[in-house]
Give the backbone structure.
Amino acid sequence: MPADRDVAERLRIKNKNIFIAANKIDGPELEHLMWDFYSLGMEKVFPVSALHGYGITSLVEEIAKTLPDAEGIEPQERRISAAIIGKPNVGKSSLINRILEDERLIVSELPGTTRDSVDISIKSQGTEFIFIDTAGIRKKGRVKDKIEKFSVAKALESIGRCDIAVIVIDAEEGVSEQDARIASLAASDGKGVIVAVNKSDLIDGKKDQIKRLKDSLSFQLRFVSFAPSIFLSAMTGKGVRKIFYLLSSLYSEISTRISTASVNKAVEEIVSQHPPVHSGKGSLKISYATQAGIRPPTFVLFVNKPDLMTASYERYLINRLREQLKLPHSPIKIVAREKRK
């Protein structure tokens, strides 16, 4: 490694913190390949895989420890974008108006008043919240005029650029098929989800109706059962301020980074409790895992044969990872990749 030694010599005289990233080490069984790099006279050698993400988190964490404190520098303000989505006339604009305590949006009893997505900023306790008020998403068969089709397309685009989707549901109407479809759009895009049950003041004291509503939330939105929910009233303001707390806590959760060691420990325990079922093609074997991204937390599992990862076992892994890694309200994405031999 003549070129590596030349670079090492040039760096050594700079008297700086030096980290060696030994690339193309795709897992623990290949870490012995990094020992040769200690011959360069550097103490901080890290096995990594730029392709698969293995070891990257550990490298970044160690680099972060050496960075100077940003004394005298204004801390960067946290920004959380939330798309307020739902079918027409469930009170999306009314909810944002109540949050802002300002009638800057058009509020109407007629569905379809909000024709375009509107971004509105509000600052609270050092965090900037961007609320995206979207057009109501109708069933495809009911979207007729060109303007409305454009509005629905903009609403779907808003889901793509938000951190968290707040799904507004009418408490009196309960959860409809369209509500479930809207929730699935946000969930399939890996967004954090909050279920906001609006107009809850209209069912106060109606125990039977409240029970039916809660049952429908549990059943029809079971695919986002991890999502936090809130009962509120845009009309009276009841429960509305809690949205800031939910957005902040959920944003922190979906932005969590977990060390590779902790991820592997969790995966090993989860698999030992319920190993993959043997099929005619063989058994799925998970060699190791690492976190590859955030928002949503994304984990790469290196396996013998990715096609042996069944949908049911993937759901099991996701649900258990949510428990083990303390991500109770977060969507989780798993990517199965073939381990190199």
About this structure: The CA atoms of residues 209 and 252 lie 34 Å apart. The chain has three domains: 2-66, 78-254, 260-338. The chain is about 35% helix and 20% strand.
